[in-house]
């Protein structure tokens, strides 16, 4: 389908300009809260917990759930609904299990600002803190996925060249995150989460006239998909990442672990009071349900409406243009763009906060010739974090110029590499008093290295199964190394010290 022209084109442009103006204004408003490292990284207590919850769901979703996963649904059919089930059900359960303990530990550690700092305090290990920061750099590929998704929207819908679409997204995001830090990210993502939920509901309602069948619309959709290809309505896909029971189990494991991603778990640290965790998790669950389920159904409907697309990642943009009148389509397109930006800004904030808080603040006192006062060190860390936005932005822009074959696969590779390294240290840090720093470091290196080895050498082709086995081995390694090094370390030293 050709891109839009005329009235629809200018409607989208006007809404986008207004939208970008609002997010930059919010960024400017948040500048007052981002002068310290804690304020820049978390804006703790400055944003309503309901908004923080919606922000969590929006950051979770990204281009993956609005472009990549619907594209896989277009290609492989109903088997992709296993991913949707995990996004809402399994991930939300994990959030309920992890959030309170993570928040309480953060308070005991004196109010940490990032996940690497949390792990560093838990295991009394600056080396671990720095290593986790380096691991988070894998999120550069995650941001690349967002850039590609945004450029795909601009290219498909507005006929804006792919390269310019990437440049626009990178520049806008860097500007408002650089101005307002976590406050800007939380507020804009909260608003984006609500807009994304409305967009998802509209896509679901549109099936009544694009697919037909009234109350039997899903039966009608199933019949039409079967007529195209019977494998499209199977519980398992014919090829692709959902082609076996083991793969489905691995997907659920991945999505349970996904809430441990630094840019998501950091949202818990933005909540000031323990009683605010309830509205935070409720808001996150409701918004996540809407935006994780309904867009995948849109990908299935797109296969019926436009069965011969050259790029599966264009399924949702094309479907929206077919299903809705111009003004509504314009609003939905902006909603999809906001979905992409909501993860991009969170990822930028997560990477740059860790560079300032967990890299500079840890290493600067070691290499400085004179002792740095705490307030000077903190102000310098904020400058480093904000300055690194430019360098990270340029790096992601450069890598994004070479369009990947699959947006979803690229994104899932990046976060699977991180999860493989951090899942054992975080989980055992809660559950096992004998877990210690050497074990956590060994686990982090083992899990990440094995995942990269499995996928890069095609030892395990399915990225979900590769992550499952890399993580499983990481748990074993952490257990063994922790037991072997008990004489040299005290497993719960940091907790005992704080509780004295």
Care to give the gist of this entry?
This protein is mostly helical and 500 residues long. Helix content is 77%, strand content 0%.
Keywords summarizing the entry:
19 helices, transport, sodium, Sodium:Solute_Symporter, symporter activity
Query: What's the shape?
Result: globular
Q: What is the rounded distance between the termini?
A: 67 Å
Helix vs. strand class? mainly alpha
In DSSP terms (H or I, runs of 4 or more residues), the helix count works out at: 19
Sheet having the most strands: none
Determine the oligomeric state from the structure: single chain
What's the number of extended β-strand segments?
0
Average residue-wise pLDDT = 83
Pfam families: SSF (PF00474)
Organism: Aquibacillus salsiterrae
Transmembrane segments: 6-26, 47-68, 80-99, 127-144, 164-187, 194-215, 246-265, 277-303, 323-341, 384-401, 407-432, 439-457, 463-484
InterPro entries: Na/Glc_symporter_sf, Na/solute_symporter, Sodium:Solute_Symporter
């Amino acid at each position: 389908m050709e891109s839009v022209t005329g009235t629809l084109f200018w409607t989208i442009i006007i809404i986008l300009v207004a939208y970008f103006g609002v997010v930059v204004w919010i960024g400017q408003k948040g500048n007052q809260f981002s002068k310290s490292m804690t304020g820049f990284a978390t804006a703790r207590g400055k944003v309503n917990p309901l908004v923080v919850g919606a922000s969590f769901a929006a950051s979770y979703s990204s281009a993956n759930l609005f472009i990549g996963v619907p594209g896989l649904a277009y290609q492989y059919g109903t088997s992709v609904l296993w991913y949707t089930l995990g996004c809402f059900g399994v991930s939300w359960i994990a959030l309920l299990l992890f959030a309170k303990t993570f928040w309480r530990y953060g308070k005991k550690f004196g109010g940490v600002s990032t996940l690497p700092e949390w792990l560093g305090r838990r295991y009394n290990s600056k080396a671990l803190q720095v290593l986790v920061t380096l691991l988070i750099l894998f999120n550069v590929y995650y941001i690349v996925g967002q850039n590609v998704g945004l450029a795909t929207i601009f290219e498909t819908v507005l006929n804006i060249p792919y390269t310019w679409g990437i440049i626009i997204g990178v520049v806008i995001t860097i500007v408002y995150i650089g101005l307002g830090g976590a406050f800007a990210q939380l507020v804009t993502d909260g608003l984006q989460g609500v807009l994304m939920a409305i967009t998802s509901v509209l896509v679901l309602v549109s099936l009544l006239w694009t697919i037909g069948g009234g109350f039997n619309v899903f039966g009608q959709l199933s019949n039409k998909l079967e007529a195209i290809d019977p494998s499209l309505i199977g519980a398992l896909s014919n090829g692709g990442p959902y082609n076996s029971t083991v793969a489905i189990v691995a997907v659920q494991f991945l999505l349970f672990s996904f809430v441990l991603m630094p840019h998501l778990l950091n949202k818990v640290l933005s909540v000031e009071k323990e009683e605010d965790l309830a509205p935070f998790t409720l808001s996150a669950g409701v918004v996540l349900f809407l935006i994780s389920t309904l867009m995948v159904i849109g990908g299935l409907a797109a296969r019926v409406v436009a069965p011969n697309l050259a790029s599966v990642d264009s399924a949702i943009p094309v479907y929206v243009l077919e299903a809705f009148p111009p003004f509504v389509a314009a609003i939905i397109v902006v909603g999809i763009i906001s979905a992409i930006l909501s993860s991009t800004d969170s990822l930028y904030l997560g990477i740059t906060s860790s560079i300032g808080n967990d890299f500079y603040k840890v290493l600067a006192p070691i290499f400085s010739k004179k002792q740095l006062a705490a307030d000077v060190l903190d102000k310098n860390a904020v400058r480093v974090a904000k300055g690194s936005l430019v360098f990270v932005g340029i790096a992601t822009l450069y890598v994004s110029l070479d369009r990947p074959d699959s947006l979803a696969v690229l994104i899932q590779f990046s976060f699977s590499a991180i999860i493989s390294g951090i899942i054992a240290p975080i989980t055992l840090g809660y559950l096992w008093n004998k877990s210690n720093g050497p074990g956590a470091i060994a686990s982090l290196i083992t899990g990440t290295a094995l995942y990269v080895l499995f996928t890069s050498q095609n030892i395990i082709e399915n990225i979900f199964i590769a992550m499952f086995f890399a993580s499983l081995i990481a748990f074993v390694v952490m257990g063994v190394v922790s037991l072997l090094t008990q004489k040299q370390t005290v497993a719960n030293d940091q907790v005992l010290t704080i509780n004295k």
